[in-house]
Design brief:
heterodimer, A: about 270 residues, alpha/beta, five-stranded parallel β-sheet, two-stranded antiparallel sheet, 14 helices, about 45% helix, elongated, B: about 400 residues, Rossmann fold, 3 domains, three-stranded parallel β-sheet, 16 helices, 12 strands, flat
């Protein structure tokens, strides 16, 4: 049986691994929420790598419609072809292109399907996908064909909580909220990225980092990706570990807003 | 099996449906809880709860229901007899600070393992100690004990300190009935977005796909189709109380302000400031300088009546500031004569207006409640919390 136990490049908390396995066994989509930068998107990549399966990513934008994920019927191309007497205009199948969901269904092997940032789309978007995700099939009326999943894909959905998702949709999901990693887990995560990092430097970095995050005046709190970049900068610049907590060098890597930088300078001691 | 738990969750305001409950049963059937209590807790949570805002509610219900779940291992009758000591005194004579700290550091699994070891070793009654299974002591098992963590074996729950993961309730901050803070400001944004999706518009946008489809079906004769634009038409006028008693809520108001201004999905947004109550002038910034202000009349005549008006203020001031004629009077002697008159003027011009209040109605003292109640009679008033905001948005959308 497939079981997810984290991967070489991704440190997952025990709860998260449990949630992933629950979703896989129950064959339900796994809905992942969490602060930006807690590695929601990377999770799907890690699962795919750990299970040795292909990953299909469907990036959701504000204009994405559910239909786009199933298939697109290129009417304009067909009209165009018909005017110039192109070959095979009668064959509608030629103008039906499968979307990401369709791709995941028709793959010969079981795949991991990542529906990234589902909350970016219109409010009704998740509802439009209920049937397809439940039954793992959809119908193309233009050609009369029904696309049915050869193997139920493992569906991972991420959300930044910009919009509330409909209840009917939520009922079908397994839900996991990625908490911001605590110091120990963060140390582990950093180790994955920098295996040879100096212990002293790491302790200092973590101390400064969590101190910054705790300042209530900071509006946009730095996240995992920022700490990784910061360490990169510190190592590259050859900064003395002793200076880190006191001076917070390369602050611009951690904080992206002027007001946050000012707030830090005012409140740092 | 434990259906009561389902009803307890629902009673606590969690919308758990039968679908989810059945999934939980299926998962338990498949052994997904890994036969550990922590596993069971996580399994329940990820199947039954669908928002981090509800985690705390879930934790509370879980704690209430499973708090006194007896230790499920086989316990010998002899041990239970030793432990059946409801007569022990309720005092802290055996409290041991050092042992307490040590016990705090133990994980649930460690304690379970230690308990199993002790049960094999133990052959007599032990009370008041810190090693054996007994009553009234500092060990992590037994009952009526003083250890901050532990597993209850036999007896009656006395100090209710036996730990459960849920007991930590670390998701308390995510609850939605908390007053809004900076962290929850995205949630506010989300609420304000919701109400833009509901606007109905006439179909005015050219629909390429359907036009081509219909034209093709029409034998090549052009047949034009239109669809509804997806744009939002909500226009918002935000009026915020600034200074004085509102200083306490400045962070809260700034969070709301950011949520409204950043959302960027309103067709138009205007923000003005006032102090305590709206009078003849409205100010462009919270500093309330008259050189940076407009007359309220100008606002009333230039902002159309289909705008949604949101007042933010604590509605607490000296009664004469609201009812008296000193601040509100027009020089001409016509029009509104007091702050309350100005508010009524807004009320009659704008059909959709609400008042968000960061403060609660004062508990006593007619002095402060007077203006609070007077304003609440003019505008529908909602607390400035996520739930209150949601209610307010609903109110703004009613026609």
């Amino acid at each position: 049986m497939n079981e997810f136990k984290g991967s070489q490049n991704y440190v997952a908390s025990e709860e998260l691994m449990r949630a992933v396995n629950i979703a896989m066994v129950l064959q339900k989509p796994l809905l992942i929420k969490g602060e930006p930068g807690t590695g929601k998107t990377m999770l799907a990549e890690a699962i795919a790598a750990a299970l040795g399966k292909k990953l299909i990513i469907w990036n959701i934008k504000s204009t994405t419609k559910a239909q786009d994920g199933l298939y697109v019927y290129d009417v304009v191309q067909r009209l165009y072809d018909s005017q110039f007497g192109g070959v095979g205009v009668d064959n509608i199948e030629k103008y039906v292109k499968l979307g990401k969901l369709g791709e995941a269904f028709t793959d010969e092997e079981q795949v991991i399907l990542l529906i990234d940032e589902i909350d970016k789309a219109d409010l009704e978007f998740p509802n439009d996908l209920l049937w397809e995700l439940d039954r793992m099939e959809f119908h193309i009326p233009e050609t009369g064909r029904t696309v049915k999943a050869n193997h139920r894909p493992v569906v991972i959905i991420t959300s930044n909580a910009e919009k509330e998702l409909p209840d009917a949709f939520l009922r079908r999901c397994v839900f996991h909220y990625i908490e911001f990693p605590d110091k120990e887990l963060m140390a582990e995560i950093v180790r994955v990225h920098f295996p040879d990092l100096d212990d002293k430097l790491l302790t200092q970095v973590l101390e400064a980092f969590y101190k910054i995050r705790q300042l209530p005046q900071i509006k946009k709190k730095p996240s995992t990706s920022e700490i990784i970049d910061w360490i990169q900068a510190l190592v590259h610049g050859g900064v003395d570990p002793k200076r880190i907590v006191k001076e917070v060098p390369y602050l611009g890597v951690l904080l992206k807003k002027n007001e946050d930088m000012d707030a830090l300078r005012r409140n740092w001691r | 099996m434990f259906e009561d738990f389902l009803y307890l969750l629902r009673k606590n305001g969690l919308k758990v449906s039968l679908t989810e409950w059945m999934s939980l049963m299926e998962a338990l059937d498949k052994g997904l809880h890994g036969s550990s209590f922590t596993g069971f807790y996580h399994l329940c949570r990820c199947l039954l709860v669908k928002s981090e805002a509800d985690f705390d509610r879930f934790d509370r219900a879980f704690l209430e229901y499973f708090r006194d779940v007896p230790f499920q291992q086989e316990v010998s009758q002899e041990l239970l007899d030793w432990l059946d000591r409801p007569d022990v005194l309720n005092d802290y004579a055996n409290w041991d600070e050092e042992q307490a700290l040590k016990n705090m550091g133990l994980s649930e699994e460690e304690i379970e393992r230690m308990l199993k070891e002790r049960m094999e070793e133990q052959n007599e009654e032990h009370n008041g100690g810190n090693y054996w299974v007994g009553t009234h002591g500092m060990s992590t098992f037994g009952n009526s004990g003083l250890s901050p963590k532990g597993i209850r074996v036999g007896g009656q729950s006395m100090y209710k300190r036996a730990f459960r993961v849920a007991g930590e309730r670390k998701f308390r901050d995510f609850r939605r009935d908390n007053t809004l803070d900076t962290r929850q400001f995205q949630v506010a944004l989300r609420k304000l977005r919701q109400f833009s999706g509901l606007v109905d518009l006439p179909p005015t946008e050219f629909d390429v796909d359907n036009t081509i489809q219909d034209t093709a079906e029409n034998g090549g004769l052009l047949k034009v189709r239109y669809k509804r634009p997806r744009e939002n038409t909500v226009k918002v006028l935000l009026l915020m109380d600034s200074g004085g008693s509102m200083e306490y809520y400045s962070q809260l108001c700034s969070a709301l302000f950011q949520a409204v201004s950043k959302s960027g999905h309103f067709k138009d947004l205007r923000v003005y400031y006032f102090h305590n109550c709206v009078y003849g002038r409205l100010y462009n910034d919270p500093l309330l300088m008259s050189r940076n202000s407009v007359t309220t009349d100008w606002v009333l005549s230039n902002i159309a009546s289909d705008w949604k008006v949101i007042f933010v203020g604590d509605a607490q001031m000296a009664p004469y500031e609201l009812m008296g004629g000193y601040y509100g009077r027009n020089n001409s002697g016509e029009g509104p004569q007091s702050g309350l008159d100005w508010l009524r003027l807004f009320r009659s011009r704008y059909q959709n207006a609400i008042w968000l209040n960061p403060s609660q109605r004062p508990q006593w003292g007619e002095y402060w409640t007077q203006t609070y109640d007077a304003i609440a009679r003019v505008f529908p008033m909602f607390p400035l919390t996520v739930d209150g905001l949601e209610e307010g948005m609903k109110k703004l959308l009613t026609r």
